[in-house]
Amino acid sequence: MYLEEKTKLPKKVIQNLDGDIENLKVYLVQDYNSNLLKRMVNFGVNIFGDLGMDEWGLVPQIRHGNVYMLREESKKKIIGLAILMRDWEDTDKCYLFDYAIAPDFHGQGLGFHFLKAVIENVKDQGFNKMGLTVDVDNAGAIKLYKDKIGFEILDMNKDEYGEGHDRYIMNLDFNNLNYKKN
Questions:
Q1: Which tens digit of pLDDT belongs to each residue from 15-29?
Q2: Residue 77 lies in a domain
Q3: pTM of the entire structure?
Q4: What CATH number is given to the structural domain containing 153?
Q5: Contact (Cβ atoms closer than 8 angstroms) between residue 131 and residue 153
Q6: CA–CA separation, 34 and 170 (whole Å)
Q7: Do 110 and 116 touch, CB atoms closer than 8 A?
Q8: Residue 144 domain-assigned?
């Protein structure tokens, strides 16, 4: 696979995060080089295993979707990744395809701050809703989405990604945002 190497790394800072985490920034990835692409793919594989996105999926997402990265400004280590696409049936809605925080950083509120920054940016782009699916056994993610951000569980799809991969279908209406950090 050939990827045209770019010299500019993503520089568009979307929002500084609140609180004690000033050295972390959210970036909208608008371009990439082969090293950044490999780091993003490896991040996803480390989190999701075989279900992580590869180069073939990630490049079109960077070019035609929205890919956000959370990292320390002075370091290259990726701490969080969010990948979104437009919902073709409801063009006011975006779909959160991938969302993860590195396990070393769980429990620090970064998932909340990162997702809040992403939501605010896609709102600015004209979206009014966001959908996602989440593993029914992922209590931490469900708590973040439902209790802290305000997503509603609409349905549960059994075997959504194959046998034993049951997922809640969740939706968030941006008109009813009510963030609850704690």
A1: 555 555 557 788 888
A2: yes
A3: 0.84
A4: 3.40.630.30
A5: no
A6: 34
A7: no
A8: yes
Chain Cα centroid distance, residue 19: 20
Helix (H), strand (E), coil (C) string for 120-170: HHHHHCCCCEEEEEEECCCHHHHHHHHHHHCCEEEEEECCECECCCCEEEE
Q: What is the pLDDT of residue 33?
A: 85
Q: What is the pLDDT of residue 22?
A: 54
How many domains is the chain built from?
A: 1
Quote the percentage of the chain above a pLDDT of 90: 42
Q: Which residue has the tokens 């004209």?
A: 126
Q: What is the pLDDT of residue 17?
A: 55
Residue 58 lies in a domain: yes
Buried b (16+ CB within 10 A) or exposed e, 98-113: bbbbbeebeeebbbbb
Residue 112: domain span: 13-176
Decide: 54 and 28 in contact? Cβ < 8 Å. no
User: Rounded to the nearest 5 degrees, what angle is found at the Cα of 160, between the Cα atoms of 154 and 163?
Assistant: 140
pLDDT band at 10 (very low <50, low <70, confident <90, very high): very low
